[in-house]
């Protein structure tokens, strides 16, 4: 499975494209577009390799492998109304596997192996089963393949589809390819084209995460470049290279680089199949094979399968003693806590509920921490079903859940929406009710830091926090909303905080002022200090206000 996953990275990495701009000898004019000829088959040699190494390592010290094959591309159908609207058949065959760098026999994992032994007989057969592309004006509009194929095989085919996605004009565009929706720049000169993809701009449905705190997060540096040579309105050769470096900010020596290279080179052209008649691509595809289904071009996430791993219940039976209070001071308790989080992330809601319902009262607070820290849909659903916020006796576990949410490394809108649901429901403890809105403020800040300030649930919570103080008659409730603002640090809250720093009671003003102190100084203008009391007013409260203004401005 690890081998297959690395192959996926190798093919997913650079989505290739090309843009011819001139018409010289052996070239079609730009007006003719990028087209395949009827009755001709383009045979390419193809190789793709991936290398994993230290950030400053050498090729010889890295670990990686190469997959080589033959790729045949031919025309299936052309629209009667537009010659640039085509169905293209792409077929892989003669797949071979080898190391990127020479290895002695005793360290060569590919020695005596075949593509079938590495990929599996069924997966190799699926990979070599042709795919059909709806190729319109050089762009892949739809990929047709088989739904019952393994996700890895589908992603490999998406990589091949991205390989022949071309553009006719130079310039900056936004394209959807196997990497997602990415910003791409084409630079064309005669029969040569350079394609530069901004990997940091790529958007996908599912992404990884890093900490909202830069110190505790992970940094990345990436590049993706493809060089094309064009001939007769199609690709003669394409050489691409993509590098991604990841490093831990707190220890920058802990870093790794993944280098991916691809090479596609025309070997020969020979007689191929004749194009099929038909009015539209959908009906033609169904005529070719009714089992072919349209697939999106962006890669699907490959879910890892843990073979031989214990179930959550089995894992819990083994480590439960380390979650008791008398064991928490030992290092093994920390290791057990982190290991349990990983197992919870692979588990279903019912399994997680079973552990929660069968834990001792003394270990339960630690289990609640672990389940909440897993930050999966199943773990969130399980803990919300387990906790009864209407029962004031459950205050300790409810607090542990809320604090774990507040310290979450990668909160999402789903978690914030869950807390908003708790807020709108029955809460038995006023302390918990206060904690809920304060923690929601913390999640709003983290989501805004990740660019999620306009998410529907974030907007709802922002409205709740901003409108809360002026709609509350009780001072305790006003303080609660101001503390939520202190966590959220919303720029739009500054005028309101300024107002309460001047007109509120001592504790209210103190919270408002200390909140203003946490804002970026660029947001603090003269207008913020204008309504504050003058120096001739008496009392410690006045002194606090004046000191705060000096600090802010």
Secondary-structure blueprint of this entry?
Blueprint lengths: L1 H11 L27 E15 L8 E16 L6 E15 L15 H5 L1 H7 L3 E6 L2 E7 L5 H13 L7 E7 L2 E10 L2 E12 L14 E14 L2 E15 L2 E21 L9 H8 L4 E3 L16 H8 L11 H15 L3 H9 L6 H11 L2 H10 L8 H12 L6 H12 L5 H20 L6 H12 L7 H14 L5 H10 L2 H11 L9 H4 L10 H13 L1
Antiparallel strand pairs: 1-2, 1-11, 2-3, 3-4, 4-5, 5-12, 6-7, 7-8, 8-9, 9-10, 10-11
Helix pairs in contact: 1-4, 6-7, 7-9, 8-10, 9-10, 9-11, 11-13, 12-13, 13-14, 13-15, 15-17, 16-17, 17-19
Index terms:
553 residues; alpha+beta; globular; disordered N terminus
Biggest beta sheet summary: 12 strands, antiparallel
> Which stretches are low in confidence, meaning pLDDT under 50 for 5 or more residues running?
1-31, 531-553
Give the helix proportion (percent range).
Answer: 25-40%
Report the total helices. 19
Biggest sheet, strands in spatial order?
6-7-8-9-10-11-1-2-3-4-5-12
Tell me the β content.
25-35%
The Rg value, from CA coordinates, equals 30 Å
Q: How far is the N terminus from the C terminus?
A: 58 Å
Number of β-strand runs: 12
Summing up helix and strand content along with how strands pair, one would put the structural category as: alpha+beta
Describe what you observe in this structure.
With 553 residues, the chain is an alpha+beta fold. The protein is 37% helix and 25% strand. It contains 19 helices and twelve strands. Strands 6-7-8-9-10-11-1-2-3-4-5-12 form a twelve-stranded antiparallel beta sheet, sandwiched between helices. Helix 1 runs parallel beside helix 4, helix 13 packs across helix 14 and helix 13 runs parallel beside helix 15. The chain is globular, with a radius of gyration of 30 Å. The relative contact order is 0.09. The N terminus and C terminus are likely disordered.
């Amino acid at each position: 499975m690890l081998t297959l996953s690395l192959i996926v990275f190798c093919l997913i990495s650079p989505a290739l494209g090309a843009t011819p701009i001139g018409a010289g000898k052996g070239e079609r004019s730009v007006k003719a577009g990028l087209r395949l000829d009827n009755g001709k088959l383009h045979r390419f040699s193809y190789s793709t390799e991936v290398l994993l190494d230290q950030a400053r390592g050498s090729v010889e010290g890295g670990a990686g492998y190469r997959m080589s094959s033959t790729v045949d591309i031919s025309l299936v159908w052309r629209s009667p109304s537009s010659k640039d609207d085509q169905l293209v058949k792409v077929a892989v065959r003669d797949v071979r596997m080898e190391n990127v760098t020479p290895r002695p026999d005793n360290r060569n994992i590919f020695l005596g192996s075949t593509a079938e032994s590495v990929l599996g007989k069924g997966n190799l057969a699926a990979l070599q089963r042709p795919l059909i592309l709806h190729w319109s004006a050089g762009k892949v509009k739809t990929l047709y393949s088989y739904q019952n194929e393994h996700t890895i095989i589908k992603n490999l085919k998406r990589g091949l589809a991205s390989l022949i996605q071309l553009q006719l004009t130079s310039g900056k565009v936004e394209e959807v390819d196997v990497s997602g929706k990415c910003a791409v720049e084409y630079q064309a000169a005669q029969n040569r084209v350079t394609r530069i993809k901004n990997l940091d701009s790529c958007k996908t449905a599912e992404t990884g995460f890093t900490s909202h705190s830069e110190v505790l997060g992970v940094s990345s540096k990436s590049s993706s470049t493809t060089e094309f040579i064009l001939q007769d309105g199609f690709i003669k050769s394409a050489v691409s290279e993509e590098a991604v470096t990841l490093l831990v900010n707190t220890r920058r020596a802990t870093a790794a680089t993944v280098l991916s290279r691809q090479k596609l080179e025309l070997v020969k052209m020979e007689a191929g199949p004749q194009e099929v008649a038909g009015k539209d691509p959908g009906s033609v595809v169904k005529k070719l094979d009714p089992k072919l289904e349209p697939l999106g071009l962006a890669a699907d996430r490959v879910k890892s399968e843990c073979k031989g791993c214990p179930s959550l219940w089995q894992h819990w039976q083994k480590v439960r003693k380390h979650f008791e209070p008398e064991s928490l001071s030992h290092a093994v308790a920390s290791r057990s806590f982190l290991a349990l989080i990983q197992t919870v992330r692979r588990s279903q809601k019912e399994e997680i509920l079973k552990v929660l319902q069968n834990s001792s009262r003394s270990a339960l607070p630690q289990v609640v921490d672990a389940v909440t820290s897993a930050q999966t849909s199943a773990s969130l659903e399980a803990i919300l079903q387990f906790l009864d916020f209407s029962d004031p006796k459950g205050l300790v576990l409810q607090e542990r859940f809320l604090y774990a949410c507040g310290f979450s490394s990668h909160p999402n809108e789903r978690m914030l929406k869950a807390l908003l649901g708790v807020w709108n429901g029955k809460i038995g403890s006023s302390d918990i009710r206060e904690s809920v809105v304060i923690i929601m403020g913390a999640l709003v800040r983290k989501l805004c830091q990740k660019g999620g300030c306009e998410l529907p649930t974030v907007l709802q919570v922002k409205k709740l926090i901003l409108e809360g103080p002026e709609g509350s008659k009780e001072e305790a409730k006003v303080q609660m909303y101001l503390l939520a603002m202190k966590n959220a640090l919303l720029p739009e809250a500054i005028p309101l905080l300024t107002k309460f720093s001047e007109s509120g009671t001592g504790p209210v003003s103190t919270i408002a002022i200390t909140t203003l102190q946490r804002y970026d100084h660029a947001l603090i203008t003269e207008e913020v200090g204008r309504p504050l009391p003058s120096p001739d007013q008496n009392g410690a409260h006045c002194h606090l206000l004046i000191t705060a203004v000096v600090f802010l401005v």
